[in-house]
């Protein structure tokens, strides 16, 4: 028969509800079960069953492997997780005991498993159900059986949390390293870039000229955040142009090599996406993760907890020791690199007179200022290039039209002379050479007299 996918309630959940005391088996005597079976059979090849068999099918009997005390939604999600895991309860337990040295548990599934750690209430109800059925866990449904099995592992929740830390720690470190490195590279490149420094010099000169005799005039420099204010100064003659257009055009004409600074500062764009606060928080989280594993290992070695009984296949101590030795070195290297980055950037911010009103300078804000300038500079440079190309195109078209016009005039003159020559030949042949109206032809082909030198 086809399945009706509803959220099933167990007997304990129906007490005091609308379902309490309802006897649906009386309805079966009034139903046309043959019709129901025919209309909703899973396959047309199924043979008709007699009424007694149908009553036996629908009659509710104790299901020896279907007892669950878990919330229906939680049970469903846990079952889905286990189906994706594709491991038996025994294999899951062995993987946790061995700290998954064979990597049977994917990292993302370990994270999912942490969401389905049994609560004290759930374990109490599960154990009660097992005791009521002769102490055998085989009566439990899939998710309940999973929780029952892992609860037999010493400090199972802490162990699984440690396993998640061990399996993900290295990847978390490796994810942070490129971001820190790109800020270090961007900091170094912008401080050492002579082209960018020359562009700032040009901007200073232009700004001082505009501000001559004013309060902001005679400046020895400017805060780097002011670099994006050039676009606010509109061109009086052209509304679609501003001061940055002028600077870009000047650089293109007089210092074309300076336009290469955009490639020199390629790492600035990536550095602008860096978040110092998020990186610092993740580094603190890594340190806390190390402390969690170290604390659990210390508890095991001190044997202060009665749960820590030596069990067959238990590899927690061995794996945790090896992890702490390796991970501590990785953490210290990362923390050292992060502190170096902050120091280098602090020097860079001072070098460019960057002091935001909101507090201490941070890389993402500083490099966002530079990146905005790079983008705008590149955009205006492209606009001017297109404009120059259009002017050159018009100039070439004008020259081409002039050339073609001259060529056409010359060709018309040549054609006119050719027609005159043909008329002269015709006149000679016909004897009309002496006619007055052809005298022009004779004079037009008469050779010029050479002027004798005196």
Automatic annotation (TrEMBL):
Coiled-coil residue spans: 283-344
> Which UniProt keywords are given for this protein, alphabetically ordered?
Coiled coil
Pfam families, alphabetically? FH2
In this chain the FH2 domain maps to 1-403
Task: Tell me which domain of life the UniProt entry assigns to the organism this sequence originates from.
Answer: Eukaryota
Identification of the protein by name: FH2 domain-containing protein
Record the organism: Caenorhabditis briggsae
Q: Upper lineage ranks?
A: Eukaryota, Metazoa, Ecdysozoa, Nematoda, Chromadorea
